[in-house]
Structure prediction request, 197 residues.
Amino acid sequence: MASRLVLASASPFRKALLSNAGLSFDVEPANIDERAVEQTLDGMDAEDIALILAEAKAQNVSARTPGALVIGSDQTLSLDGEVLHKPADMEEARRRLLALSGRTHALNSAVVLARDGETLWRHVSIARLTMRDLDPGFIGRHLSNVGDAALSSVGAYQLEGEGIQLFDRVEGDYFTIVGLPLLPLLAELRALGAIDG
Prediction:
């Protein structure tokens, strides 16, 4: 068994997923500038960007947690080949929902395991979500209801909350949508002997 499991993320959603799965772990957020890393990845697709960022987070924390098995994770949203980021303010959230309205976008959730500077495993899962045609007035009312929570996600929605009302169709598992491909991660942790199984 690994002596210590560490989540390299400050995401309350990822922490909750691991806690709800019964894992014992520490949280040590990575200290990287994601946008600076991304600037070096021009022309790469959204899945590769998510994997590279997840690996950078895992490696960053692995360097300061000797012997620990570190979980790095990242999620990108892609729409017609463009990678989108968390909205900076409510106006950008409004524009994001207008851009996604009536269209299908992809959430690319990557997870990486590292120990002592060595990447042991990498995985990306993709979910495809189709928003219904949204009336601008409804978008305004929706954002007023959810408030700043809209700013904590790349799509300006939380599918696990009122955001579900924005969608016609969802293809992919819940964990990928929330931002951590939990089933493949648990399978790999069992394979490594890091958790009981």
